[in-house]
Task: structure prediction
Amino acid sequence: MKKKLIAGNWKMNGSLAANETLVKGLLAGLGAPVCQVALCVPSVYLAQCQALMAHGAMSLGSQDVSQHEVGAFTGEISAAMLQEFGVHYCIVGHSERRQYHFESDVLVATKAQRVLACGITPIVCVGETLAEREAGRTEEVVKRQLAAVIHANGCCISEVVVAYEPVWAIGTGKTASIEQAQQVHAVLRQQLQAASNQADRIPIIYGGSMNAANAAQLLAQPDIDGGLVGGASLKVSDFLSIIASAC
Ligand code: PGA
Result:
């Protein structure tokens, strides 16, 4: 059985002081988890968190990457730069980037390619908006988003992590029901199986208001291999409790 992955997505939260308290608190409470744990932190804090997390049981992640390899792209951060700071995971195509930065399916697929080329595992986010769900378009939307990444990455697709994050459940306190989440995960699993004979090793994790109270039930579903946790990853006790549910 593959290990579950619990990844925290700090988004644009944190400070030098708060990060230190959070990371030290997590390390103290973690022990040796039997699941994988990652923290996706704002880029300016990668060096700090790399130092804090050295030799610990958690992996370092970033929240985005440039689609370009190198050059005149003011404000951008390349995959090679992330690699230098010990980044293991990189979120690509988060709905907040698709929405506020107009990231397309093709752009997201290119970003996945960039990080894979540097030995970093992309956490590829897919998910429908409320309007798309209500119009009965959930499957079509998530399959289209994932298809772009499969198309661009060929057999490397077995090296990615897929995160199903229904947009209407992110930061809203509304979680997809266990059945809704499992159903979409099964659809994504089938799509991956059609693309790769190694699809069963690809973690498909759930994100969207996962918390200490609902994590155990979500993580017990056959196709839910972990969680991408926003708000609840900022509190030591909540995040530790989610990790405990996965282990
Ligand atoms: P949330 O965020 O847990 O705060 O809903 C999840 C995410 O956006 O990755």
